[in-house]
Amino acid sequence: MKNIAIFASGGGSNARKIIEHFEGSHHVQVVLVVSNKKDAGVLDIARAHHIPTHLIHRADFYDSKEILSVLDKHKVDLIVLAGFLWLVPGYLIEAFPRKIVNIHPALLPLFGGKGMYGAHVHAAVKAAGMKESGITIHYANEQYDAGDIIFQTTCSLSEEDTPETIARKVLALEHEYFPKVIERVMNDE
């Protein structure tokens, strides 16, 4: 059995899809949900699925390596960043080389980097007059949205699309593909 920890900062809709995808699997399970926000909806989702949670604080995350012992305790094989807004520190990248997967709501290398998340991304895509958007699933490294790309897929956009309709189209892709790509990554190990 291979173990996943999900790191998330928000509502957790991707985390929910991942948890549900692996429920009943004999090969992969979500064993931990980590958040940097005590009121994040993802923590409620984890509790509803009887998955342990861990709250991290900025100082501990960047100035100590406490999270490594938590991940070790849960025998984590892969970290999935599902709407986790903090940059992953170098010690964690070193401890989990090519074992930290992130999803970005645009087609990298476009519309990535510090500050490019959620509504900011979709507003930038609209402002640029793009004919398509999509998702990028990639390995995390020590820079925002700069790791090796694992998977991308697109959706068509029209002039009538707003940042909100773009967000809905992209989220549908995230929900459809993120769990499948994680499963593929786990099977390739």
Verbal overview:
This protein has a single domain (2-188), classed as Formyl transferase, N-terminal domain (Rossmann fold), CATH 3.40.50. It contains 7 helices and 7 strands. By secondary structure, it is of the alpha/beta class. It has helices at 13-22, 41-48, 58-63, 66-73, 90-95, 118-127, 163-188, and strands at 2-8, 28-35, 53-55, 78-81, 100-104, 132-139, 149-156. A 7-stranded mixed β-sheet has the order 3-2-1-4-5-6-7, with helices on one face. The longest helix is centred in the last third of the chain and has 26 residues, at 163-188.
Summarize the structure.
This protein is an alpha/beta fold.
Keywords:
189 residues, Rossmann fold, 23% strand
Our count of domains comes out at 1
> Which architecture per CATH?
3-Layer(aba) Sandwich
Radius of gyration: 16 Å
CATH fold title: Rossmann fold
Task: Characterize the main sheet.
Answer: 7 strands, mixed
From the N-terminal CA to the C-terminal CA, the straight-line distance is 12 Å
